[in-house]
Amino acid sequence: MSDLLRTLHRRDFLRNTLTGIGTLALSDLLGAASTDPLAPRPPHYAPKAKNVIFLFQEGAPSQMDLFDPKPALEKWHGQSLPPSMTKDMKLAFIKPTAKILASPRKFAQYGQSGTEFSDLLPHTSKHADDICMIRSMHSEAFNHHPGQLLLFSGHLTGGRPSMGAWTTYGLGSESRDLPAFVALGSGPGTSAGSDLWTNGFLPSMYQGTVLRSSGDPILYLSNPAGFTAESQRARLDALRDLNAEHQMKTGDAEIASRIHSYELAYRMQTAGPELVDLKKESPETLDIYGINEKESKQYGTNVLLARRLVERGVRFVLVMHSGWDHHSAINTGLPKSCAQTDKPTAALLTDLKQRGLLNDTLVVWGGEFGRTPMSEVRRPEDVDNAGRDHHPNGYSIWMAGGGVKPGQTIGRTDELGLNIVEDRIDVHDLQATILHLLGLDHLKLTYRHMGRDFRLTDVHGNVVKKICA
Question: How many domains does the chain have?
């Protein structure tokens, strides 16, 4: 046999063999594509929480007007502090010589725990014994965008996966017909925008899905007029087969994410409208969430949707409400923000508790940092209508449900609220603790990217045992 014939026969053999192998590989890939890559995955250890609802109050609520009373500010009201007390402060807009602004709010103790709340939170305060109040949060950032990035991605710059993406990467989802990670927003909008729900360098299937509370729950989810369910199914089947064949050739993992996204969108065309249809909710439920009131309707609707989402197995729900950035007119702006959010927030805790969901659902309430005890006066004519600047050196958040030890207050700031004097908790500590309550070890939840293993807490963070039940 000539060398040419041997070469031709060898080529035919390889072509036929590789075609057979390719057919088997494509068959396996199509089988894999039919399974859900976001199926529930086992945690590192037994979890206390299955789901998270993060009530993010964008703009930084004033801790000393809501959760951390500072009567000593009365003595300094209208005066500047000595340089020795302010020399190390990180300030965004004011100078260390800015005058102290005492809070006009009235505080009282609530529940058996005696947790203190201001008069702006008449509804949330009723849940004092369900809440773990943290008064000693610390952030490295003192401007909004980097502060929000740090809180949700663990880093001061963009491009990192958000907390919800890390959570779904680690645990998957118990919902087949809805996204694993959902974001809802109210108010004028967040500084960091989509960075709060990005997948970063994780596969795109872990990106958060923005859900609207009216109209189509997700833009472009509905089929165009005249497009039947049968033709949609046939189209998706063809796309799935083509994408799977292309992935077999290229090895691109993002193609599997694309296949999954198409299939999830198809299922959501039924599940999505049902989710946002609140007609089956009782009038009493709509009332306690403040949906019948103009001020609280938008936020109340989103918080009620958050309950419906975790009820349906969604792993991480980010509820964002912007408008807490009170550099001026804090004594009118802060009451407005509280009127929009207080009643729905309390309703969520009540509702989750009544339905037996609070034990499995971790609720976190807070902003990216706090506010200064000094006043900010942006115009001379606003001297009697001042606000407060950004303050990362000691602010308050609270947590409830999902393995949290309730009815306690953790941490303490000094008498003027300048600095933490007990139980400092950094942002990475909070992240480590949230993952811990979900059964995830923040040191082991890593993803290989650009030659090294990344994690949400980067190279910092410790679980705060005092928070855990």
Answer: 1
Please tell me the chain's helix, strand, coil percentages from 3-state DSSP, rounded to the nearest 5.
40, 20, 40
Q: How far is CA 157 from the centre of its chain?
A: 17
By the 8 A CB rule, do 212 and 275 touch? no
DSSP class of 342: H
Q: CA 251 → CA 22, 26, 286, distances in Å? A: 13, 12, 49
Mapped onto helix, strand or coil, the DSSP state of residue 135 is strand
For CA atoms 154, 160, 165, 166, the dihedral sign is negative
**Amino acid identity for residue 466 in this structure:** K
Residue of 166, 168, 169, 171 lying closest to 42 (CA atoms): 171
> What are the residues whose beta carbons fall under 8 Å from the beta carbon of 457, sequence distance 6 or more?
154, 428, 431, 432, 435, 442, 443
* Residue 464 contacts residue 430 (beta carbons within 8 Å): yes
Least reliable range by pLDDT among 186-195, 256-265, 320-329, 405-414: 256-265
Q: With respect to residue 1, please indicate whether it lies within any of the assigned structural domains.
A: no
* Amino acid at residue number 425: I
Q: Which CATH number is 72's domain given?
A: 3.40.720.10
Q: CA 404, 407, 413 angle in degrees (round to 5)?
A: 95
pLDDT digits (tens, 9 = 90+) for 55-65: 999 999 999 99
d(CA 66, CA 395): 11
Q: Give domain status of residue 17, yes or no.
A: no
Q: What is the pLDDT of residues 240-275, one digit of tens each?
A: 677 677 667 776 666 666 666 666 665 656 656 778
Task: Output b/e per residue, 182-192; b: 16+ Cβ within 10 A.
Answer: bbbbbbeebbb
pTM for this model (two decimals): 0.86
* Residue 172 DSSP class: -
The strand ranges marked E within 197-340 are: 209-210, 316-322
Tokens of 277: 């249809």
Among residues 94, 141, 146, 120, the alpha carbon closest in space to that of 388 is found at 94
- Does residue 397 belong to any structural domain of this protein? yes
* 21 against 456, higher pLDDT: 456
Contact 180, 315 (CB under 8 A): yes
Domain that holds residue 316: 51-221+279-467
Q: What is the rounded CA–CA span in Å between residue 169 and residue 205? A: 9
**Residue 35 to residue 266: CA distance in whole angstroms:** 15
Residue 329 counted as domain residue: yes
